[in-house]
What does this fold into?
Amino acid sequence: MQRFLRYFIGCLGVLVSLAMRAQTPPVALIGTLVTPQEIVENGTVVMEGGRIVASGVGVKIPAGTKVIRTDGVIAPGLIDLHNHLTWNIFPRWQPMEEFGSRYDWQQKPVYNVLLTVPHQAIVKEGLECDAERYAEVKAITEGETSVVGSMQDGCVKGLARNLDVVGESELGPGRVIYNVFPLQMSPEALAEAEGVLAATPRGSLLIHIAEGGPKDASAAREFEQLKGRGLLRPGVSLIHAVAIKPEGFAEMAAHGVGFVWSPRSNIELYGDTANVAAAKAAGVKMALAPDWSPTGSVGLLGELNYASVWNQAQKPPLFTERELVLMATSNAAELVNLQAQIGSLAAGHVADVIVVKAGGTGHDAYWTLTHSTAEDVELVVIGGVAMYGDAAMMQSFGGASGERVEVCGAGKVLAAGGKSFAATEKVLDGALRKQGRSLAPLAECGY
It folds into this structure.
């Protein structure tokens, strides 16, 4: 009965969202576009019916269109292909040591006390959907419009686009499967994954593999085991891959296997990250994602910032700021075979769009995106609906009322509908305090 009620309420949320899109008049945003393949100064994006209908310079704006001059950077919504959403209610965990592989820290008493047991208590109290709701709002404040790592019954609808929940993404093409322990998949789960990868249109399989230090033998062995399961094939993307050698990345490229890079969490836990130089040299398609709040970044803007700083420490730098932005947008869309739907400002794509405050002089719009923080997010549009942003921008977009939230001292408006976000925060914080923890803030400020 509880699952049915969740489904029913979720369906109502989707219907309300679709109705909002149908009633919303065309909107044109004017500013600096990151398409993301190029920067377009003084560009225009026109949205109607939940889709982008035109973008670029000299775009003809239809009569009756609401025009908003943003003076900011307009980009596709960020796509997060690696997260564990319900764990993002926890404050940052700062390990006092570096680990060999993920199996090492998962057995530590401190991990169990700070994370595992409190998470189990949240689930037992029936608050997992509240935790996911909090995490999705957290993702949206970081410019994310699509996520994975949600509950499979889809108990939260109408916030971020959940790519790995059947039917919730509203995008149509093949299914996305997200698996944390792919070497433990049952024969039935493996057969299901193989069916998704063989389907037309092809689905995708995102799997955690070779997570550990670069020289950890057990983590490295996972790659060989993966090949033995026949999962080195198009549609598969490996997450972490820290222990994979250059020849392994060459094999991945040869078989059309993608890679999701999470540098901050890797370095926090293992002291190093994947050999992205080898991955790039081999021609592996790469995305960027934050992993989770306890050891990764709060969201994708934070991970872009971290990756940019890490990159500048390499001599010479491995990536341009443009390449990093592509990893969080169009590259990520390609890895899940949704490049015709999300990850771009091209006409016909879903209207998942963000606006961030313009950067300082001397920096281009790519640099602005890789150095923006949550308080710089002025607007987040998902499926043509203004979900979050500065009050003035939200009002200009459609006059939608919403709930005030504060991010690092900056007042924002959240138009999520349903249960108030303040109530979600209160119930989660109360439950966590019984476990000796407290609710993590939406953003990390002043770090």
